[in-house]
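WARN  no MSA supplied for this record, continuing single-sequence
INFO  ligand: S-adenosylmethionine
INFO  echoing inputs
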Amino acid sequence: MVTQPGYDALAGLYFETFPTPYLTSLERYVVAAFADLVRESPVEGVVLDVGCGLGQVTADLAGQGLDVIGVDPSREMLAIAKRHHPELRFVQDDARLDATDLGGRRVAAVLARYSLIHVPPSEVPDVLAGWASRMDPGTFVAVAGQTTDTVGEIAEFDHLVAPAWRWHPDRLSAALSDAGFDEMWRTVSRTDAQHRFPDVHLVARRR
Ligand SMILES: C[S@@+](CC[C@H](N)C(=O)[O-])C[C@H]1O[C@@H](n2cnc3c(N)ncnc32)[C@H](O)[C@@H]1O
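INFO  complex generated
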């Protein structure tokens, strides 16, 4: 499992800085639309909030009726998540999910919000393949992160906490497709006072 010393060190400050995970209404609506998709589909299984951080979105998904587990490599981020949401299940693990015991259950959906950005691009195909191996046809993935307008580009950027990469939406979509997930829809929002880079939210379905 990878460690996240940057997030461990800054977890308390992170909580003070981001008391809510949604910086815009669109971000909240996108997660709600994803939750609707999962809830209204016949797929069985648990929802994984991969890189759940403080667990705020995990709690939001649970509040929307999903059976969700938060997964994150940062012990300190998880400590805050557990303190605020003792009723929810959190697991210390990274996006590869090697240490996540699902008790034989399948995965109905994965949400990776601003967490896959921290996985070195050369490792992303393996990570996505690992998700696909735990998921049946018709299940869902949502990935959100900073993006770039340069077609095909994956650009490392100066994230304040940990190494991170911005993927062009088409490149992200192609990586998901290679792993067995077909894009359903995406939103791209432009830069604003709170976003230095454009942002992508991309939802795909397991084929
Ligand atoms: C920007 S925070 C996002 C937290 C949460 N998903 C949200 O939307 O509020 C990024 C999180 O990704 C986690 N992370 C970093 N590297 C990771 C990895 N390899 N696998 C899974 N999560 C990772 C960090 O520990 C951190 O909690």
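Residues 2, 4, 7, 21, 50-53, 56-57, 72-74, 77, 94-95, 113-115, 118-119, 162 surround S-adenosylmethionine (CB under 6 Å).
INFO  checksum written, moving to next record
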